[in-house]
Amino acid sequence: MNRTALIYEKGExxxxxxxxxxxKQKKIExxxxxxxxxxxxxxxxxxxxxxxxxxxxxxWLSLIEQEMGADIPIFSSAHYYSATEMASWxxxxxxxxxxxxxxxxxxxxxxxxxxxxxxxxKNEDEKYALWQTLGKTVEEVADEPGLVFxxxxxxxxxxxxxxxxxxVASQTxxxxxxxxxxxxxxxxxxxxxxxxxxxxxxxxSGLYREFGEERYRPAPYLKKxxxxxxxxxxxxxxxxx
Amino acid sequence: MGRGIVEVMARQEIDVYLYDxxxxxxxxxxxxxxxxxxxxxxxxxxxxxQKMKMLxxxxxxxxxxxxxxxxxIIEAIMExxxxxxxxxxxxxxxxSTSCILATNTSSLSVTEIASVMQNPKxxxxxxxxxxxxxxxxxxxxxxxxxDQNVAEEMKTWLKQTLLKEPVxxxxxxxFIVNRVARPFHTEAYRMVASGETSKTQVDKILQDxxxxxxxxxLQDLIxxxxxxxxxxxxxxxxxxxxxxxxxxxxxxxxxxxxxGRKTKKGHYHYE
Lengths: 241, 271
Prior knowledge:
A: 7 strands, 12% strand, B: 271 residues
């Protein structure tokens, strides 16, 4: 069965490249929004990688809704906004599903969050069918920015950045400590570079905005690195500092 | 923890004095190590000959003056500031001037422990992880007065002689691991608080992402009381920094006696 996914190309950092690669490997045709507006092919699913942290996500989602049939599901990054808030911008709010595109290649589970507007709709199998044919197990979790894995990683990275900036230890030593002392698969700085600082800052800022709790405030230096489009490079720490 | 550290030393055939002021406690510790080594022989991890060499390297003692020829002391007594300070004051009177003094504290400030010593320059923390014979990491914690050369010397020795993975840390609450790992545990409680995400889901999702265990599985293994104590210690040491605040449900688990695998009930049930 030929399937086509429209992927919004304005996703943070490395996400567009990674998700497109994943779909292409799975023989799903990928088109960008720019391509869609040119020749308007049939689309089975819309993938929105943009967290909306620095962009006008509402405008984009409203636009895509005008261009697509009401039955096409929209999987939208829930890194910054809850699914409920994003769905509130749509004429057909139940079509929206929040998800995280982070590490999509490596994970067997796809975390999703459903908007409150979809409460009572029991069977979402059709919406999840494409993911299931790709071998993903879909887990519906609470509709909160960052979902489970991205939120956990963002919090770990934030604490590691605070510790590093307070000169408790170097990035390299913090990474070693977390891998050798508590069996984490990667150190927080390695993880931040894999995921992208833009996504980490978007998740923390989304949680901070949603809950208004100080605990989610991003480390000031993490925000600076985001503005500077910098990355942690644990092997060349002198340069990153 | 002290027993594990003794085993680590003995494995490299370093002469190690196993001390407790209570003779029977020393004997129990020695028998425990002996049993551990017997198990390793049974599992063919070490030979009988290796076991005998290791046991010969361990000298059980109950008098502090036995340490007068030692190059390094590692203290692993209870986590009580005044008790540790008292011990180090007493140790300074019996050890040589070149002997390095270390605490295995996981939650106390090495700077504060050293504050009662005559020569705090030779004092630092060597924080081993449990079980010490298996876990490679050692945090080498440098206090305000610690001589950097002493810390460097210890780091090299841990790596080259004990074959450990040492990291250098400035004296700060929770050092690296106990601090940076806090959100892994405390945030998990927040994620399940509404009941819309289950503990099983959180564990499953994080395992799928590469963690060996999810936070709830891990807390059941560590002990929910131990984990809560670590959370509170870091939170209080940072003067109630909101980022490190434990969740009330974590305390509720403790109050209800659901402590994890050791009580057969925690986040999950074990029969």
